[in-house]
Design goal:
The protein is an alpha+beta fold. It has 12 helices and 6 strands. A hairpin with a 2-residue loop joins strand 4 and strand 5. The longest helix is centred in the C-terminal third of the chain and has 23 residues. It is globular, with a radius of gyration of 20 Å.
Length: about 290
C-alpha cells in the first residue's frame, strides 16, 4: 500500500498527514478516520483495500459472495456511471480502439466547443435533478453532490475537451490500460462475477488510476490534489453515531459537506456506504 495516514492522539480533529507505510491497513478508530482511511486507499490506487476498510469484515465477506453470484457490484456502485464500466472497457479493448474513437471524436467533437459547452450545461441540469430525486441518497449526500456537480461542470466548461491532440493521447493511453486490466469487457458483469470482488478491484484499480492521471495531464482535473487537501472535523457525536464536516477544493472550487458515520464492532464507517452495501447483498439496512 502506497499511503497511510499517520496516527494522531485521540480527540485530534485536524487533518492527518499522509505518510508512506507499506502493506498496512488500519480500520478507523476515530470518527474522522472513517474518511481518512478511505482517502488513503484511493491515493494508494487500492480498490480492494478500500472495500475492506469501508465496511465491517462480516459484511465484506457477504459482498465477496454476492459478487460471485452477480447480486452485488458494491463498491463500484459508489462510482458515477458504474453500470457502464464493462461497456467502456469493451470499447477500449477492441483492436485499434484509439483510432476508431478518434474518428468518432473528429466527426462529433473536434472544434465543436459551443456544442460541447451546451451538452455540459445540459448534463449539469439533469445531474442536479437526478441527485435531488434519488431516493437512495440522504439530504447530506444531495447537498454534497450538488456542490461536486457544479465544480466538475465549471471545470468541464473551461477544459480543452475539443482538442484532438489531447483526445488522441487520452484514448491511446486509456486503451492500453483497458487491455492490461485483463478484464473481458465483452463479457460484461459475468467477467466481474468470474473474477470476484477482490480480484476485479485489483485489476480495475490501475485502469482507474490511468483515467485519473490522464484527466489531470490532458485536461487539468487533479483529483489527487483534492484528496490530499481534504480536511475532516468532528461536528457532533452521540454514542456510536457521529457527523463529520468535509472541506476540500475540487477543480478550484471549495466544497463544504456533512457526512454521517457509525461505529460498528469498535470501528467507524461512512453510514451511507454501509447502508448501500447492506442493501446490495439483501440485508435490511442497519442490520449490523
Amino acid at each position: 500500500m502506497a499511503c497511510l495516514v499517520a496516527c494522531q492522539p485521540e480527540g485530534g480533529g485536524g487533518q492527518r498527514p499522509v505518510a508512506g507505510i507499506a502493506n498496512s491497513e488500519v480500520a478507523a478508530l476515530r470518527p474522522v478516520d472513517a474518511v481518512y482511511v478511505l482517502r488513503d486507499r484511493l491515493l494508494a490506487r487500492d480498490g480492494a483495500g478500500f472495500a475492506r476498510l469501508a465496511v465491517p469484515p462480516a459484511l465484506h465477506a457477504e459482498l465477496e459472495l454476492a459478487w460471485r453470484t452477480g447480486r452485488s457490484r458494491w463498491p463500484l456502485d459508489e462510482l458515477p456511471l458504474d453500470a457502464r464500466i464493462p461497456r467502456m472497457l469493451a470499447a477500449l479493448q477492441v483492436p485499434n480502439a484509439d483510432k476508431a474513437l478518434m474518428v468518432t471524436f473528429r466527426s462529433q467533437f473536434a472544434g465543436a466547443d459551443a456544442d460541447i459547452d451546451q451538452a455540459i450545461r445540459t448534463l449539469m441540469v439533469f445531474g442536479g435533478q437526478y441527485v435531488q430525486t434519488d431516493p437512495d441518497s440522504s439530504q447530506a449526500e444531495h447537498d454534497h453532490s450538488h456542490q461536486a456537480i457544479a465544480a466538475i461542470g465549471t471545470w468541464a466548461l473551461q477544459a480543452p475537451l475539443a482538442d484532438p491532440k489531447r483526445a488522441q493521447r487520452f484514448f491511446s493511453v486509456l486503451s492500453a490500460a483497458a487491455v492490461r486490466s485483463g478484464i473481458d469487457g465483452k463479457a460484461g458483469n459475468q467477467a466481474f462475477a468470474t473474477l470476484g470482488m477482490t480480484q476485479s478491484l485489483n485489476r480495475l484499480s490501475p485502469f482507474l488510476a490511468t483515467l485519473l492521471a490522464q484527466l489531470h495531464q490532458q485536461y487539468g482535473l487533479d483529483i489527487d490534489a483534492s484528496l490530499r487537501g481534504l480536511h475532516v472535523s468532528l461536528t457532533q457525536q452521540t454514542g456510536d453515531q457521529a457527523q463529520l464536516r468535509l472541506q476540500y477544493t475540487l477543480a478550484g472550487r471549495p466544497i463544504d459537506a456533512v457526512v454521517p458515520v457509525v461505529r460498528l464492532d469498535g470501528h467507524w464507517y461512512l453510514r451511507d456506504f454501509v447502508a448501500r452495501a447492506e442493501t446490495s447483498v439483501g440485508r435490511t439496512a442497519g442490520a449490523l
